[in-house]
Structure formats: C-alpha cells, structure tokens
Amino acid sequence: MKLSAHFDLSEFERSATASRYGIDNQVPPSLIPNLRRLCDQVLEPLRAYAGRPIVINSGYRSPLLNFHPKVRGSARSQHMTGEAVDIRVPDSATGNRWFLFLMNHCPFDQLIRERPTRDSDTFWIHVSLKASDNRRQVISNLIKD
Ligand SMILES: [Zn+2]
Fold it and tell me: Which residues form the domain of 57?
C-alpha cells in the first residue's frame, strides 16, 4: 500500500528483528493516518531536499517488537503508534545537513540524532510527529547504549 508518492507501507513494517524472530509487525489500520502524516509532512519534504531515496531503518514497531531485547525500545516509544521513524543517513556530513533541514523546515514532536554507542561516529535520525501538541524537542546527540 502506497502511503505517499515515494513511500510504501512495507518500508515501515520491515524489520530484520521481526523477521528473524517471527514477530508480527503489521501496522494496525487505525495507525495508517499517523504514517501518512509523517510521509506528507516530513519524509516527502526531506526526499525533495535530498534529491534521493530516503531509507527507513525503523518505522512501525509492534509492542512485541519494541520490547524485544534486540530492540529495547522505550515504554512510550512513538514507533509503537506510527508517529516515529528512524532515517538512515548515507554519511555524517549529509546526515547533518538533513538534520538541519528537518529542524528548520518541518513540523516534528521530537528530532533526535541517535548514535548506537558512545564511540560510534555513525548516527541515524529519529523524527516523530503527532497530530497536534508537537513539542519541537531537538536532541542532537543521544547515545542509545
Ligand atoms: Zn527511533
């Protein structure tokens, strides 16, 4: 199912961990509008700016997937409500440009530059968006570990 011109529902449901452990990660229909909002207001504008496909590292997470030891998502993760997406960055310089673009041109609830470990210089961009009451909270260097 297409969510917008360049994004498909399957990109939000795909998860290596879910496949490996046989965890159902289908998005409930009630959450589709949240994903469409992310596509229309965040991902499509970013794609237009980037001029290249945007790769989703992690989109929707069913509660079973979110709380799996390999994922260790937070109890209130917006990935469980279809309100958050993790964006893969091709390299740090490009990732920093994308981060600034999102910060300056898109609505969001939280925008986070996340590193997998303290020593890592790679990162991904977590961005969330709600229907209303968005906090516009920016966290530029969160270490996941
Ligand atoms: Zn995330």
Answer: 2-143
